[in-house]
Amino acid sequence: MAIQCVLYRSSIVFETVRGSGAYGDIAIDDVGIITDACVRLTGRNTSAEGRVEVLHYGEWGTVCNDRWGDEDAQVVCRQLGYRYARPVSSQRSFGRGGGHIWMDQVACTGNESRLTDCPHNGWGDHDCAHDEDASVSCYDSTGCDEYRASGRTASGVYTVFFYPDRIGTYCDMDTAEGGWTVIQRRQDGSVPFNRNWEEYKLGFGDKKGEFWLGNEIIHLLTNFKKHQLRIDMEDWQGNQRFALYSTFRVSGEADGYRLHVSGYSGNAGDSMTGSHSNNGYRFTTVDRDNDVWPSHCSQRYGQGGWWFRSCSHSYLNGRYLGNCGSSCSTWQGLMWYNWRGSDYSLKSVSMKIRP
């Protein structure tokens, strides 16, 4: 971020502009002493992530990561001109800071304009060392709904993340007034879904065909804005059904990409929040068992990743079994129990989200 300064009677505000540094706002008092509010990210060759440092009375210092979370990271990144944020694990190294540790026990609500507006112990009051320095990763995204609102009405692959990485996904501009960001699609069995934790985390497949967008991206898209989830499905006779959930959110990796889903409507039946609800359960893959069944749902049933309970009435990442009618291997295929039961594998399915 480059810096532009605007002079007022009793303060100078640094306005953030995309460029080559990483600073936020700064204020000085009436006698010209810098009091607070400048923030920067250090420790990486990018302005979008790094160790958080604040300027207080002319000297830079770090922030302790005690209680550091999503709300605190959001304030820092907003102050730097980014739309979204995530805290970075303390195990990830941006190097240790030096000198002052200015802030500890920061408790932002997420609505503050500047990090220094957030409650904390007081300047320099801490019990931390520099191996506890707080860090963040900032990013920008444009949802398919925003493309639709700007007049982009053709379905296709659009860039939804711009920084630090350019990531695209398929935008469905046709279904139910369009603007849907597709996070999963199955249609022909061309992409195997028996993948491990890391592959489900990062995503895989062909955005023009079959794919899983990636748990980390799904988490980032749904973490700071309320989304709904729509699931469109088709059987081998050409019948189509849908399930709509008014609330859909996925927690971060530290919480096992836990699913938060509620508010069913539609004509496919409720296979996600009904008697075998997926709500509140962590993601399971063939190499990471997070379900509550004594055995291992993913290993036993198709080796796909899903928010299993013990196991599930929905399983849209199972094996693509083709047209085996009602004699498919039970609980193995693309299964939506409340429509076609546990021994029927659907022809196609797509999961999509929209604010």
Automatic annotation (TrEMBL):
Compartmental location: Secreted
Main localization (coarse): secreted
Disulfide bond residue pairs: 64-128, 77-138, 108-118
PROSITE patterns assigned: FIBRINOGEN_C_1, FIBRINOGEN_C_2, MAM_2, SRCR_1, SRCR_2
Domain MAM: 1-40
NCBIfam families: GGGWT_bact
Ranges where the Fibrinogen C-terminal domain occurs: 135-355
CDD domains, A to Z: FReD (cd00087)
InterPro entries linked: FIB_ANG-like, Fibrinogen-like_C, Fibrinogen_a/b/g_C_1, Fibrinogen_a/b/g_C_dom, Fibrinogen_CS, MAM_dom, SRCR, SRCR-like_dom_sf
PANTHER family linked: FIBRINOGEN ALPHA CHAIN
Name recorded for this polypeptide: Microfibril-associated glycoprotein 4-like
Annotated SRCR domain residues: 39-139
GO CC field: extracellular space; membrane
Matching SUPFAM superfamilies: Fibrinogen C-terminal domain-like, SRCR-like
UniProt keyword Transmembrane helix, yes or no: no
Organism domain of life: Eukaryota
Gene: LOC118411856
TM regions (residue ranges): none
Keyword annotations from UniProtKB, A to Z: Coiled coil, Disulfide bond, Glycoprotein, Secreted, Signal
